[in-house]
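Hello again, I could really use a second opinion on something today. I've been staring at a protein lately and its backbone has me curious. Can you walk me through what the tokens say about the fold? Take your time with it, there's no hurry, and the full record follows here:
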Amino acid sequence: MKKMMVFPRESSKSDKIDAKDRISELPEPIKQHILFFMCPEDAARTTVLSKAWQQTWNSLRRLSSECVFEYVDLLCTKTLEILHTEKVIIEKLKVYLLLREEGAASPSYLDKWLELVLGNYINELYLYIFFEYTLPKQIFAAKSLAILDLRGCRLVESFFDKNAKFNRLKELTLEGVVQDGNAIQELLNRCPVLEAFSIDDCLNVYCLELFNLPNLKMAKINRVRMIYINEAPNLHTVCCTAKISIICLLHTTYNNLRKLSIRIGYNSFDVMYFPRLNSMFPLLETLDFYDIRRLDEVKISHDRLESLSLSTKFNTITGQIDCKNLVSYEYEGKTIPSLLINSPRLHDVQLKLLTDYPLDTWWFLRLKQYLEIFKQPGVLLNLQLQIESSMVEFNPELLSEQSICPLTNFKHLRFLYTESLQIHRGLIDGMLWTIHPEMISVKLCSLKDTAFIELLFKNLKEKLECCNGYQIKCWRHYLKAVELIVEQERERRPELFPIFAKYKLSWQL
């Protein structure tokens, strides 16, 4: 039996499969026309098909500059109609509306505007609506949004579609927003790639959960009673700047957290997390801790912390700070703290004392003893005094030569609200016997009392009563020169001069 030889038939050109992308080779106007009939999200996805489609997308008309609408009129509506018809890509749109008179900014106008805008591809939307306005349902289907900023609107929970998600939304800001039901939580749950979240002064918001947000880097929470944060491994900054009840960081560690700012109110954050700062937040660089009430003794120990701010309006803060990399320290309170600070790299110290009780010689002595912990080389001290007391007495005869040796590493001494004539002389003498600042500035609340500035100027420029008979020399013996600094702002606004003054001082060693 003969074997049959089978040879492959040479394929003709007509048999070959056409591998060319004929659609991508269409003329540019036709491809743009195709994109016009697609929904914005699908049109944006064409950029991954080929370089040709990416070029077509980039060639579409864009509203690159910021578009702002402040009033409702026919011109605004016509402008948006043109943008909608031509499918212009809107990079940023801001709407500022204030209800000035009846019917001036009706919800129907806003609904029409949003319907026109959301028919396009829009990247950033800012709605500042300063009257009662419920956001229409279609805004929750705007999947192209990367930034959404809402102020003064109402969110309705039932408006969310069951499976709707904002897959591109990276920044969400809510201020003065009123929610129905649990609308804000629903919105958060539908933002899987959210990177920044800010909420302030929103009504009917009692509890928020920031769960399963792997891209979240920044959270600013204000006026929310209860906060739960979990599954946010990339969280970089947490700021709770108003009084809240509870903040719960449910993760055992936050390896990327760099900044933590907490205003405690009646929170138990101090008790829960202070002892574990180093283990829970190993990369923490900035800690701002306001309104300390609960702790009798503060103990802060951290290897990487660089900036620390503490404030209290009630008790005296005592304890120890052991942070070898601390560079900046700030304190605000009514009493002089009693804190031991072990920070060899400390450079910038900002202190603010808000006193509303009588001050005497021993108060100035206690202040100096506290300031002496910052005598290490390289430390620059800045002190701001807000005096609301009507009695300040300083008697240098009570001091010995060992008790007063003025500190010379002072950068700036600021006086605020010194309107009582009775305290002026004692306040000036007490502070300048205690410290020798490079700069003194005074800022008053009003024009009704400029006596302090006048007396300060007279004390600095003239040799008044000397310290003859005292055991130690007064500050006037060390003062070499005084220079009045006239800033540009004061040159433009001379009416500020009676309530503001700034002097540069030179001292003898």
